[in-house]
Design a protein that fits this description.
The complex is a heterodimer of chains A (322) and B (379). Chain A is an alpha/beta fold and 322 residues long. Chain A has 2 domains: 229 residues, Rossmann fold (3-Layer(aba) Sandwich); 63 residues, RRM (RNA recognition motif) domain (Alpha-Beta Plaits, 2-Layer Sandwich). Chain A is built from 11 helices and 14 strands. In chain A, strand 12 and strand 13 form a beta hairpin. The longest helix of chain A is centred in the C-terminal third of the chain and has 17 residues. Chain A starts with 17 loop residues before the first strand and ends with a helix. In chain A, 43% of the residues are buried. With 379 residues, chain B is of the alpha/beta class. Chain B folds into 2 domains: 122 residues, abc type-2 transporter like fold, CATH 3.40.1710.10; 191 residues, no CATH class. Helix content of chain B is 67%, strand content 8%. Chain B is built from 15 helices and 5 strands. The two termini of chain B are 19 Å apart. Classes of the chains: A alpha/beta (322), B alpha/beta (379). Chains A and B meet through helix 2 and helix 3 of A and helix 1 and helix 9 of B. Bound molecules: adenosine-5'-diphosphate (ADP) and magnesium ion. Magnesium ion binds next to helix 1 of chain A.
Chain lengths: 322, 379
């Protein structure tokens, strides 16, 4: 297995084996470059969050990593196996949970687990399936068709089925989309429990609170990785400073402020408006005229991850405009 | 490259999954059982209708006792409606062409004299073969009528004329459809059509369904090899093919007394090859179809030439060269001949071998194409 030589910029640490180590990964569909020369390095035992707007190339990247799509360019290894030449070995050791529920709805819960058990050639699969059912709390409903489960339960079944063969790497594609908050929290407890057993997890998500439960996050937009690192890294890499303003008619205030070039982003969050800019002095100058207004209350705050993401998205839009 | 060995465990798992899903798919199951029965009844009973009073004209060049009693015999049989006489070959052919006559019976000159002289005169029967269903039964009956008329009339010193060999030769000239179809011939063809239609379609749907429902992505992400997936997906449908064959052959036996003269084992073996041919075609079709709809359309595209160009509907030898060329690469063509041979003529392995090896080659090629086209990725 290749080792991390501290190329991500940090100090040279002790050698950590890499679960994912890919370079210049590129995928085109027709003329569309959907994933553009991305580098992704994930050390073993870490939970990495994969964030980005819809259509930014998360699913495509994950599919290339687990061998379901052939990259047009780029190379690398997954669990030490060559991405292009050893995809069978990768398949055996990776658990991939697809974005859309992809187990068989016309099979029962138990039949789905049995099938996965046999395909992966799991020893003592009967015991393991029984244990998985217990842990899921689905023992009594094991003979129910998978199609009859609600969204949250489907996700848990899928997770149980794709971890049955004790994979070393888990690729989870938006596993908590459309799942209620309590189920989401439990799902993430489960992910961290797996990580504590040295399982590496790459999970794509749209939720900020989930991003904050990751060891590191990767932000991708339009097929390009814009930022990666810990949550704090990603925020500080944006270089933003942020003011939060409360008051009335924030929407029209936002419209006015955004016209000022020093204001990079302005976004309403419920009762407050977040205004961010890259150069702190210019931003302050920009909001100066509004500071005295009685109906508004201003405060300087830490830039949030969401502010940073909104900023990254505007960069992409400007870039596309020319 | 991962050089893992073929795994019976994985193949079995896919097979079992397919069986379970099939068991829950009621409509498919109904189609499997009902389609062969419905087709058999439709074809079988359509053929079984005993046509009566078919328009017949007589061209008699010999006004004698014998010729008159022959015509009387035809009248009595109820098969034939003797509409009148014609006076030349051209007139008779005109009537046939216009569809006003189904049969033209030509009694030759000196019929009686030749008959009595033991010269075995020939009676010519021209048949409009475009509607074989209507003409084949009566045409066969004509022989018997002629025989019984002669047996009745040839008495005394002439008696030995009828016993040695037929005193009169009946020449049937089937026009427009030289081979003709009989009810017996339809059953083997029907077997082929049922197996092609349902076989190709079921396998193609089984694979495209996975793609449409998104489960294909899961299956591909699992470490199952293409050959394992193919075998696991196909074997359940081979079994179903055998069930359908049993239904058709048994029903044909009970309802229409269609015999199986040859070996049942041989028939079973040939069925296995043909069914697997269709499975491989269906599988190859599925690898190039994106949706179940496309798979259905593809099935029609495969079934249609099998129906038209295999010699089932139109006799093979009567087809134009281009159609025969296409017919030669259709497995149904060979299957049709083999099953006719085994069921109706009692053919053995030596006799059917010339039609069997093309099937085996087709099977091999179709399997290779199916495996080659099956992609392990979703690009
Ligand atoms: N098989 C495909 N053929 C053509 N375009 C595709 C295909 N799969 C994905 N795309 C396109 O690639 C882009 C990225 O898709 P995807 O990787 O699914 O994004 P994400 O998972 O981040 O939402 C989208 O614009 C999508 O339309
Ligand atoms: Mg996606």
């Amino acid at each position: 297995m290749r080792a991390n030589n501290g190329e991500s910029g940090g100090a040279v640490k002790e050698e950590v084996p890499l679960a994912i180590d890919v370079h210049n990964l590129t995928k085109r569909f027709g003329k569309n470059t959907v994933v553009n020369r991305i580098n992704l390095v994930v050390p073993q035992g870490k939970v990495y969050g994969f964030l980005g707007p819809n259509g930014s190339g998360k699913t495509t990247t994950i599919r290339m990593i687990c061998g379901l799509l052939t990259p047009d360019e780029g190379e690398g290894t997954c669990l030490g196996y060559d991405l292009r030449k050893e995809s069978e070995n990768i398949r055996k050791n990776v658990g991939y949970m697809t974005q859309r529920f992809s187990f068989w709805e016309d099979l029962t819960i138990r039949e789905n687990l049995n099938f996965a058990g046999k395909i992966f050639g799991i020893k003592e699969s009967r015991k393991r399936i029984q244990y998985a059912l217990q842990k899921l709390g689905l023992e009594r409903r094991a003979d129910q068709l998978a199609g009859s489960l609600s969204g949250g339960w489907k996700q848990r079944l899928a997770l149980a089925a794709c971890t049955l063969h004790e994979p070393k790497l888990l690729l989870l594609d938006e596993p908590t989309a459309g799942v209620d908050p309590k189920a989401r929290r439990e799902f993430w407890d489960e992910i961290h429990q797996l990580a504590s057993q040295r399982i590496t997890v790459l999970v794509s998500t749209h939720y900020m609170d989930e991003a904050e439960r990751c060891h590191a996050i990767v932000y991708i937009a339009n097929g390009n990785i814009l930022s990666q690192g810990t949550v704090d890294d990603v925020i500080s890499q944006s270089g933003l400073s942020t003011w939060v303003v409360g008051g009335k008619d924030l929407v029209s205030l936002k419209e006015e402020l955004i016209k000022n070039p020093a204001v990079m982003t302005a976004a309403v969050f419920g009762e407050s408006l977040h205004v961010s800019g890259v150069v702190a002095e210019e931003l302050e100058a920009a909001i100066e005229p509004y500071k005295d207004r009685k109906d508004l209350s201003w405060s300087r705050e830490e830039t949030s991850l969401e502010d940073a993401f909104i900023y990254y998205n505007t960069l992409i839009k400007d870039y596309k405009k020319g | 490259m991962w050089k893992g060995r073929f795994s019976f465990g994985r193949t079995g798992a896919i097979m079992q999954k397919e069986f379970t899903q099939l068991r829950r798919e009621r409509s498919t199951f109904a189609m499997i059982v009902l389609l062969p029965i419905i087709q058999l009844l439709l074809f079988g009973y359509a053929v079984d209708m005993n046509p009566k009073y078919l328009p017949t004209y007589i061209l008699s060049r010999d006004q004698s006792v014998f010729s008159r009693s022959f015509v009387a015999g035809l009248k009595n049989s109820l098969y034939f409606d003797i509409r009148g006489d014609v006076h030349s070959d051209e007139e008779g052919e005109e009537l046939l062409r216009k569809g006003q006559a189904q049969f033209i019976v030509t009694i030759p000159e000196y019929f009686e004299r030749d008959l009595v002289g033991g010269k075995r005169p020939s009676v010519l029967v021209q048949v409009d073969g475009t509607d074989p269903v209507a003409s084949s039964g009566p045409a066969a009956a004509m022989n018997g009528i002629l025989e019984s008329v002669l047996r009745h009339d040839l008495k005394g010193p002439l008696e030995n004329l009828s016993t040695v060999k037929p005193a009169v030769e009946l020449i049937q000239h089937r026009m427009y459809n030289p081979e003709g179809l009989t009810r017996f011939n339809i059953v083997p063809g029907l077997l082929g059509i049922v197996l092609t239609m349902t076989g190709v379609m079921m396998v193609a749907l089984a694979l495209t369904r996975e793609r449409e429902r998104g489960t294909m992505e899961n299956l591909l992400a699992m470490p199952a090899r293409p050959l394992e997936v193919m075998i696991g997906k196909i074997v359940p449908y081979i079994l179903i093919g055998y069930i359908q064959s049993t239904i058709v052959v048994t029903a044909a036996w009970f309802l229409f007394s269609v015999p199986v003269l040859g070996s049942l084992w041989l028939l079973g073996g040939v069925l296995g090859i043909f069914i697997t041919c269709n499975m491989a075609m269906g599988y190859a079709l599925a690898t190039i179809s994106r949706t179940q709809m496309q798979a259905m359309q593809g099935t029609v595209l495969i079934a249609l030439p099998s129906l038209m160009l295999s010699g089932f509907i139109f006799p093979f030898s009567g087809m134009p060269v281009w159609a025969q060329t296409i017919g030669r690469i259709i497995p149904m063509t060979y299957f049709n001949r083999i099953v006719r041979g085994v069921m109706l003529k009692g053919n053995g392995i030596e006799e059917i071998w010339p039609e069997t090896w093309p099937l085996l080659i087709f099977l091999l090629v179709a399997t290779i194409i199916a495996i080659k086209c099956y992609r392990k990725t979703i690009d």
